[in-house]
Amino acid sequence: MADKKNVAILGATGAVGTQMLQCLAERDFPVGELRLLASARSAGKKVEWCGRQIELVEAAPEAFEGMDIVLGAAGDDVAKQLLPEAVRRGATVVDNSHAFRLDEDVPLVIPEINAEDVSWNHGLIANPNCATIIGLVPTWPLHKLGHVSRMVVSTYQAASGAGAPGMAELEAEICAMGRGEKLPEPRAFADQLASNLIPQIGSEKFEGYTSEEMKMQNEGRKIMHEPGLRVNCTCVRVPVLRSHSESITLEFDEPVSLDDAREALASAPGVRLVDDLAAENARDRFPMPLYTSDQDLVWVGRVRRDISNPDETRGITFWCCGDQIRKGAATNAVQIAELLL
Q1: Which residues does 37 contact at the CB level (< 8 Å), separation at least 6?
Q2: Which of 38, 84, 87, 244 is deepest in the core (most CB within 10 A)?
């Protein structure tokens, strides 16, 4: 059993922070003292965890004193303001915000891909974007077969990507529709999400691509150590509660057979292959967000040739789904923390 570590969660009351708490318990992380940091309005309230009653503490620099590991689940501004203070006080930080992901001296880690990068951290380790994690976990074993040079990706991202307010807004819209009532004005999203799709996540970043769409390329290059990786990504918000789905087409430098691709996916850590269009039950034919929620694997199916590629042996298309709050955020962060043990 590893020595116990004093652990703090910054942003402990949000969707990701709450899930981090659950993941620590599920994975038997060796927690000594657990310090839950939140806003001033939440301070003093109590949260039950593993039979303990833990009082929420206002997030402030001094709150990190004595902590070994800090899990960040707050927004960019709070992360930039407070997490360097945690490092100065001797903690190692695993941060889920966007604040430090592309900093050259901060590792950006998916444990199934580049766990070794944790070794060169300087007190801060970044957790990648949720869509990046869910897309790259199954891409990596295929990359090792034929070296991926190009990706074409469409993401179908759940309401949970906007946190607890996003999920609450979708649920409220669905309930209002069911009762025949006027829907509440959208706050978490640009427009009504129920019975709708919103083909913009993030602000415009580069030549019509949004900040969310550029993350797959920019973060993928860093995680995979492939500075030449080219990614065309379209991100769409869909009326699903919490599991993200992605359609991914890969272009390889070397030929890759379908049999080898399926075998690599079936044996890859963090992946479950669900790929049988002849199965009697639809949930055994392909991944669906309804069935991939509340678990930590990225499910992959619809594995097939990219028939638009002039050299069909160098193109493969697949569909994948994964829980955005768990593997896309909280679980990946706790897995990184486990590497620190």
Answers
A1: 8, 9, 10, 11, 12, 56, 57, 58, 59, 63
A2: 244
Give the separation between CA 108 and CA 221, rounded to whole angstroms: 10
Classify 278 in phi/psi space as left (phi over 0), alpha (psi -120 to 50) or beta: alpha
Structure tokens at 131: 């869509």
Tokens of 246: 């992605």
- Global pTM reads 0.97
Contact 175, 256 (CB under 8 A): no
Query: Residue 2's pLDDT is what?
Result: 73
DSSP result, 102-142 = T-TTS-B--HHHHGGGGGG-SSEEEPPPHHHHHHHHHHHHH
pLDDT score, position 1: 57
Q: How far apart are CA 63 and CA 58, in angstroms?
A: 8
- Supply the pLDDT for residue 134: 98
Active site residues: 130, 244
Task: For residue 51, count other CB atoms closer than 10 A to its CB.
Answer: 6
Per-residue model confidence as pLDDT tens digits over 213-223:
999 999 999 99
Give, as one character, the DSSP assignment of residue 287. -
